[in-house]
Design a protein that fits this description.
Elements: E1 3-7, H1 11-22, E2 26-30, H2 34-43, E3 60-62, H3 65-69, E4 74-77, H4 84-91, E5 100-103, H5 116-124, E6 131-135, H6 140-144, E7 149-155, H7 158-167, E8 173-178, H8 181-203, H9 208-229, H10 239-250, H11 255-264, H12 269-275, H13 281-296, H14 301-311, H15 316-324
Parallel strand pairs: 1-2, 1-4, 2-3, 4-5, 5-6, 7-8
Antiparallel strand pairs: 6-7
Helix pairs in contact: 4-5, 8-9, 8-10, 8-11, 8-13, 8-14, 9-10, 13-14, 14-15
């Protein structure tokens, strides 16, 4: 039985821990809160994020990272993007030299514009074959309710990707493998930014034409940046691209879309942050994504507008006006 350390007891971390446990792994879930750990161990619930869903009794929760990490063959990372580096530096002494890292994190690091797999490699020195990424249309509340979904597992080699694929395959969770780590991560990170823009449109009461236009042009931005970094353009037509983008932009379960909706309804950025109970990765990742695009000479107008709204006090309603005022040109 594969020993897995799930590092993060949030909504997605808990849901993926359930997938891994039901796929046959022995899962130890690390969380910062004593109350959450006790809730999982005694009542087999994560009442904060999934109050009405039973968690397999085989999942053990702990607040001690050493307990979770020792002897773990797979280390799954489900912490906010901007805390990954510091956490890995703290956890490194307890992670085995052969452990495989799996990132569930959809963000870009502030200051470095590095993808999460790059942060993992830099901090741990792990060979790329020991680093995998999971990304797709994976809304946690639907997955933990055992609703059917598919995802992408990316690693630098087929063997590595297939190994993680096999570790998380259940009758309701179907992973497909790829070796396009760059495309998988860029799709996951940038779609959050597009979801904020789409949420603003929803909050303003705009309909399907407006939303479809934003989503489609957002996909073009994702593809341009990914290809400039060396990604396979076909990745963005798959689960880690358009699949994840549609789910995140269209579902009220999406925290990034909800963040945008609150802005579109008239809340300030500060008020929106105050009422947001979970991490909105787009808030901090949008700036390093735009910086990365600018270094590469890649045009990302929707992302640029989201940065202006979130960090430079641009009125949310002006985002769509600026988008529509752009010069007309060939679609492709």
């Amino acid at each position: 039985m594969t020993r897995v350390a799930m590092m993060g007891g949030g909504s997605w971390g808990t849901a993926f821990a359930v997938v891994l446990a039901e796929a046959g792994s022995q899962v130890t879930l690390w969380t910062r809160g004593e109350e959450m750990a006790a809730d999982i161990n005694q009542f087999h619930r994560n009442s904060r994020y999934h109050p009405d869903v039973d968690i397999p009794e085989t999942i053990i929760a702990t607040t001690d990272p050493q307990e979770a990490l020792q002897s773990a063959e797979i280390v799954v990372l489900a912490v906010p993007a901007q805390s990954l580096r510091a956490n890995l530096m703290d956890w490194a002494p307890w992670i085995g030299d052969e452990a495989v890292y799996v990132s569930l994190i959809k963000g870009i690091e502030l200051g470095t514009s590095m993808r999460m797999s790059e942060v993992i490699a830099e901090v741990t020195g792990a060979d790329p074959q020991r680093i995998a990424v999971v990304s797709g249309p994976n809304l946690a509340k639907e997955i933990i309710a055992r609703q059917p979904t598919a995802t992408t597992v990316a690693a630098s080699t087929q063997a590595s990707a297939v190994a993680i694929q096999q570790a998380c395959t259940t009758d309701y969770f179907r992973p497909y493998w790829t070796t396009d780590v760059i495309g998988t991560e860029i799709g996951g990170a940038v779609k959050n930014v597009i979801a904020v823009a789409n949420g603003i449109a929803v909050g303003m009461g705009l309909g399907e034409n407006s939303q479809s236009s934003l989503i489609t042009r957002g996909l073009a931005e994702i593809g341009r940046l990914g290809v400039a970094l060396g990604a396979d353009p076909l990745t963005f037509l798959g689960l880690a691209g358009v699949g994840d983008l549609v789910a995140t932009c269209q579902s009220p379960l999406s925290r990034n879309r909800t963040f945008g909706e609150n802005l579109g309804r008239g809340l300030s950025v500060e008020e929106t942050i105050a009422v947001t109970n979970q991490t909105c990765e787009a808030f901090k990742s949008c700036q390093p994504i735009l910086e990365l695009a600018q270094k590469l000479g890649v045009e990302m107008p929707i992302t640029a507008e989201v940065v202006e709204v979130l960090h430079f006090d641009k009125p949310p309603r002006d985002l769509l006006s600026s988008f529509m005022a752009r010069d007309t040109k060939s679609e492709l």
